[in-house]
Amino acid sequence: MKTPWLILLLCCLALAHLSLAKKGLEFPRYDGKDRVLDINEKNYKKALKKHDMLCLLYHPPSPAGKDQQKQFQMTELVLELSAQVLEEKDIGFGMVDSQKDVKVAKKLGLTEEGSVYVFKNDNVIEFDGLLSAEIMVEFLLDLLEDPVEMIGNALELRAFDRMEEDIRLIGYFKSQESEHYLAFQEAAEQFQPYIKFFATFDKAVAKELTLKMNEVDFYEPFMEEPITIPDRPNSEEELVSFITEHRRPTLRKLRAKDMFETWEDDMDGVHIVAFAEEEDPGDVWLEMDDDEDLPSAEELEDWIEDVLSGKVNTEDDDDDDDDDDDDDDDDDDDDDDDDDDDDEDNDDDDDDDDDDD
Q1: Which of 62, 91, 219, 348 lies 20 to 30 Å (CA to CA) from residue 332?
Q2: Domains 19-144 and 148-251 share a fold
Q3: Looking only at Cα atoms, what is the longest distance across the chain?
Q4: Is the pTM of this model over 0.85?
């Protein structure tokens, strides 16, 4: 099978990561207070002006069936609980009915039923994560952060290096007043919070990253070497164009906060999802003659098919470990035999000494 695109997605089944938002954040019980607005043509402008961020669910009309009604109520509860937790953060929540509020939806650019749209300044961000209060709160808190994070020392640089699961960019600029940094910041706002942007004004940090002035590096998830965006210094439009073209990585981790973004493109190819524990002792590795010579898409696809069909023995690693254990046991037995022989020799020597006496 020939595929122009081959996307590998690594999914961690550790449920704790799917259920927790910000570390240490405890969710209360819903207090029963209505905070979610019924957005219509009369109040949508006021809602946009009142809040720094407005989070809107674009939904179909309320269903008639009991099961569907229950599901709809659960969705409302997710919004209400999120609004309760973030009440002091000046984030508004509302619902837009796709049938009753057609004009409002058109003016706001709402197109996909069941989707959540977040309005922040002049940007509209679609929430592509699992619709739960924990995940939504985490997403919105990330949106409240500055779109660009600063790196100014070796400790922060080490933290940046450990972020291998994320798409991230880092640029080296003269100062926060630099027009090229401001263009970088404007581009960051368009991709927040799905893509992380970093900047440094420190020569030592830039030297460690081999960055030149006004240069930006683009890191794919799980890739050691970045791609340098060409033709520095880059305008906002150039940065946005490059990121849009390269934002679909070869390998990514499937996460609750952006899981549906993975599937949104109509791709002429396949998605391969690997379900595994993050630290799986039974993993299978593709053997390569040269670590620097990565396999082609066709070679990788053939190997995956061999694994799935059973041609590649997934128990080989375990067997090797068992063989190692057996070897260790044999060595221990040999050591015990040697110790027994030494003890017998010592006993014979003692008997000879007694005879001499």
Answers
A1: 348
A2: yes
A3: 117
A4: no
